[in-house]
Specification:
With 246 residues, this protein is α/β, with parallel strands linked by helices. It has helices at residues 10-22, 79-84, 87-95, 103-106, 110-120, 183-186, 189-206, 214-217, and strands at 33-34, 44-46, 54-55, 65-71, 126-128, 134-136, 143-144, 164-170, 210-213. Helix 3 (87-95) runs antiparallel to helix 5. Bound molecules: zinc ion.
Length: 246
């Protein structure tokens, strides 16, 4: 999702209120655990997000879609955001001595982006850092709140959060960030590589049929991952993951 403070909807505002009340009770792990993985699976850093930022799912959730997003922390010092950031987010920002002057060096820090999500009461299942590190915020079987009002162009299904996995790449866009000009500025080779490893794992576990952009399921409302994302590196013409067997 793009996380611009001025794009808060009434629904998100309700969630924010909830987060503000409860987020301070959620301890942030200073050293996230690395889950043990088999050879076939990518290494995933486990960093569970606040329970106010996603929904538990009863029973087995049927998953057939991956939604690609980007997010950054470039709006961290905006007044609107400073009013809602949680105690843990503030503590983390202090621990890295974050200032408006050095924010550019930290704008893709996934721990800051996670604090932004917690403040807004939104989430993704996974985040992929610039160096390719894969982080899990929400278990696959639970419903992350990443898509919002949405509709699949392929088959018209709405409520895409119900049947999808959301993946946030730490990135920004020329509209938000003038230092991003080219496809290579926007997303790193390591991010594409990790995204494909992660999708291979998701295919094996769930059977993924579609890889879509947030901008494709919420046109006019969302712009991520944007025109600088190189779709041919991750999906076929039928929008299936390139790494998944037919
Ligand atoms: Zn998005």
């Amino acid at each position: 999702m793009t996380t611009r403070p001025h794009s808060i909807t009434a629904t998100v505002l309700c969630l924010i209120t909830l987060s503000m009340v409860q987020i301070s009770g959620c301890a942030r792990a200073s050293q996230p655990d690395v889950a043990s993985q088999s050879d076939a699976e990518p290494v995933i850093v486990e960093s569970p997000i606040s329970s106010n930022a996603y929904g538990k799912w009863e029973g087995q959730r049927r998953i057939d879609t991956v939604v690609i997003h980007y997010a950054s922390a470039i709006y961290w010092f905006n007044e609107d955001f400073q009013e809602i950031v949680g105690e843990d987010g503030r503590a983390y920002a202090n621990s890295i001595s974050l200032t408006p002057q050095n924010l550019a060096n930290h704008k893709y820090d996934w721990q800051l982006v996670k604090a932004v999500f917690e403040a807004y009461g939104v989430s993704s299942h996974y985040a992929i850092a610039r160096d390719g590190t894969i982080v899990r915020f929400v278990p696959d079987n639970d419903r992350a709140w990443h898509a919002g009002r949405s509709k699949m162009p392929q088959d018209g299904r709405t409520g895409v959060n119900n049947f999808s996995i959301g993946i946030e790449l730490m990135a920004s866009h020329p509209d938000d960030d003038p230092t991003v000009k080219t496809a290579e500025d926007a997303y790193t080779a390591a991010q594409y590589e990790s995204l494909n490893k992660l999708m291979a794992m998701l295919c094996e576990k769930h059977g993924i049929e579609y890889v879509v952009g947030h901008d494709e399921i919420a046109p006019g409302r969302k712009t991520d991952p944007g025109p600088l994302f190189q779709w041919d590196r991750v999906r076929t013409e039928d929008h299936a993951p390139v790494v998944c067997p037919e």
